[in-house]
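Crash report, auto-generated. Payload:
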Amino acid sequence: MRGTLIYGPGDVRSETRDDPTIIDPTDAIIRVSASCVCGSDLWDYRGINKVTEPTPMGHEYVGIVEEIGQDVQHVKPGQFVVGSFFASDNTCEICRAGFQTSCVNRQYAGAGGAQAEYLRVPLADGTLVATPEVPSDDLLPSLLAASDVLGTGWFGAVAAGAGPGKTVAVVGDGAVGLLGILAAKELGAERIIVFSRHADRQALAKEFGATDLVVERGDEGAAKVKELTDGLGAHSVIEAVGTQESMLQAIRSTRPGGNVGYVGVAHDVSLPGEELFFSHVQLLGGPAPVRRFLPDLIDRIWTGRINPGKVFDLELPLSDVAEGYRAMDERRAVKALLRP
Amino acid sequence: MRGTLIYGPGDVRSETRDDPTIIDPTDAIIRVSASCVCGSDLWDYRGINKVTEPTPMGHEYVGIVEEIGQDVQHVKPGQFVVGSFFASDNTCEICRAGFQTSCVNRQYAGAGGAQAEYLRVPLADGTLVATPEVPSDDLLPSLLAASDVLGTGWFGAVAAGAGPGKTVAVVGDGAVGLLGILAAKELGAERIIVFSRHADRQALAKEFGATDLVVERGDEGAAKVKELTDGLGAHSVIEAVGTQESMLQAIRSTRPGGNVGYVGVAHDVSLPGEELFFSHVQLLGGPAPVRRFLPDLIDRIWTGRINPGKVFDLELPLSDVAEGYRAMDERRAVKALLRP
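Recovered output after restart:
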């Protein structure tokens, strides 16, 4: 099959690889209908995460179940499924509490690389959610978004306590931040402030429900949010970047008693305890338990209520995956969709 | 009047000072019935917080209202009142959300020093809560505890999500930690694990509701909590110390999706972002909004349901305040009560 490997910074290649096979009886093999490039893939591409050997890439996927292991009971061959980037049993105490990405039997679902024609998904019953039927082609981008960026933005909004009457601020105007806006809007937020200085992203932010734009960053950005909220700060702040600056910007944009939902994968972040203590800001974040939200998200997409697939502004054949990375790295694209 | 000043590390003096007077029309003057020495006072006493000039000490108090400013409407002279260490208007948006210690008009209620015969309390209507009548002498210690250590332990338990079916762990066996145990028990926790290696504190911990004792600290202590909880960690952890070690011990004792309520005043704490991200642990802490809980706490004390005053294991005349600091510094006492 065709698959994607990263060899080092800036060096992503589409190559012929062995087809995956069932290893554990709880596995499923899916024929990937679409996958994509994640903002977090760029950490490797930019050399910030060290790549020590050629590594399969991709952890966002939708597709048709080809084959199942003998212990798989709920997922059937022929079904169209959406998965999440961590495989989970969905039965342990942690999963039942809604934190499937910390499942006691968690495995990385992208280990085989989802930017490929086929993917082995461990713990298929606990990881994959089937759609009512095989979707029409126009739903593919939105269903693919559900597998990570929408689920992650949604978790950010939930963790930030977004809801009716709330003012939500969003740090980061990448795909996750943009879908955090959509999530906040769906959850009933009254006002949604987005930090963005890119015209194309601002336009999509507004379409998804942003009511206010702030172009300032860091402490200036936080001051602007306070100015917009009677000096108090937002109730709920979604952090979708993962740097020291973005975390402090998020915390400092939040009112006392408010919440930060942080979903940007943290890199070299160190939080000052004294400031956090006196801020009265509540923090919850981490790898989004997308599985918790998938049935609801699929339903909202299936019924046409939301169209998160709009974050894909570039579509490429799988063999051109390298151009997808380049375009996102150079900010020519928000998010690149790949079709085998 | 007699009041208490700190001059430098280890140097606390009982002196004659001017009686406080009404300054703002929202002030009240109270005749202090009892005050006490706080664990956080020891940061100054031990030279960890720098003392640059003689400073009035004490921020925990109960007493009789002597005089009120012309704008005070709800508090009346002759009433017995319990206050909190931050004065709050209790009407702003932040107060109404339950974070009175971040009130937009917040003032430090201990500015005049509560380890004294009289105290000026700003924003009296929003800060002081009157008891149904002047209490009998045996209720004094518990009502005094409500003004800080009980309210703080209670906030720690609430912030940690303690409740029915939950396993709660408590880091810190000082007065706040011990009353965090009492709070967790009152809130319905199923199991309460306390980190403690002092026999007298262990005994009180058990009396307040602790079910398990752990003598190990740091990562060994966290490992012990995991061992006691099927490898998962506690649902809710109350942090009542405020050091780097205690914060990490708290975070590492918590299961994914669980909560840390941290109420030990943070000193030189720096939280590793990556670890926090992947821990899935929710954090809420800060100066306890005691005012939020006071009516409920007073009721529980008044009806004899709880007896938090047991944390006072030393009672001294106000003039012997220095011995109170010494005894707590040397861990000869958990908490010293002072009577004018």
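Post-recovery validation: The mean pLDDT of chain B is 97.
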